[in-house]
Amino acid sequence: LAVSPASEGTLLLFDSGTSLLSQSITAGIGGHAQFQVVAGAQATTSSLQLGTATDGNGNLLTIGPGSQTTVHGLAQVGIQSVGWLQASEGGTLLAEHITLGIEAAGNGQLQISDPGSTVTVSQDLIAGVNGIGNVQFSGDAQGSVGGQMKVGVGLQGSSKTIVRGANSRLDVAGDLIVGEQGTGEMIIDVGAQLTSGNAAIGSVKTADSFVQVEHENSQWSVSGDLVLGTDDVVSEDTDSKLAIFDLATVTVSGSTTVRPTGNLNVQAGSFASDSLHVEGLLVVNGAVESQVTGNGQIDVTKVSTLGDPTSPDGFDFSGDLMIG
Hints:
Elements: E1 8-14, E2 19-22, E3 25-27, E4 32-38, E5 42-45, E6 48-50, E7 57-63, E8 68-77, E9 82-88, E10 92-100, E11 107-113, E12 118-121, E13 125-127, E14 132-138, E15 142-145, E16 149-151, E17 158-164, E18 169-172, E19 176-178, E20 183-189, E21 193-196, E22 199-201, E23 209-214, E24 219-222, E25 226-228, E26 240-245, E27 249-258, E28 262-267, E29 270-278, E30 281-285, E31 291-294, E32 298-300, E33 314-317, E34 321-323
Parallel strand pairs: 1-4, 2-5, 3-6, 4-7, 5-8, 6-8, 7-9, 8-10, 9-11, 10-12, 10-13, 11-14, 12-15, 13-16, 14-17, 15-18, 16-19, 17-20, 18-21, 19-22, 20-23, 21-24, 22-25, 23-26, 24-27, 25-27, 26-28, 27-29, 28-30, 29-31, 29-32, 31-33, 32-34
């Protein structure tokens, strides 16, 4: 769709009796292209490319209950220009892989909104390879990733992921990496839920990457280990941050390591980990109860801002607290 420069193309699949089976779908080569799957229609393809050239942009919208788009292979969104992949009003997206914001000029957006809307990625979700790749769940939308999720991957890559709303949820079965070599941001708020396997914030290069969990009932559950920051200190600033605000909760089943560039900031929230090793910055305080809990040892090797361990704004570990 929209092959020639400045051209426009629209393909509408409408009604539950309408279906499309294609080897490949490409939208936005030279102009503006829009592909809509609505009112129970079905689209199935082996590969999907949206926003493939600098002069084009491509959108694929899956709208309404029963409407479904299935990509058996790779969905590339925002290759060299703007690409949008959306599901709303109960629409469903299924893909083996999704990659957002591939080249430096690429801008890929994945947006899932409204009750009943879902995206299921059977393998990996990669956002912000060398361009911009953003992900948003809102209005009770839900998603699952069967493999890894990486946001802010390449040196020029940037990504923001937002999971917002009381029934909005994102489940990542594999590793979650926020800011590998680029800049990654993730916000979980207004009662939303995030689950993941092992997790890392700012895992390779020092970058302004963070995860922020805020508001009551908002929660991030890590089934493995959590690592904040790296050992590569290029400045005094700590910039790989996990921030927990306003009665939100983060639970780590394994160990948590805050490396020299890492920052764990608990402000009127709750953080639980089996063990905690801090080489970076640990801040725990707040007018409302803040807690850091676990079963192992807290080992703080750098000067940090700590609440009184005997007060509600403090610690409850069955092991030892070591500072020095």
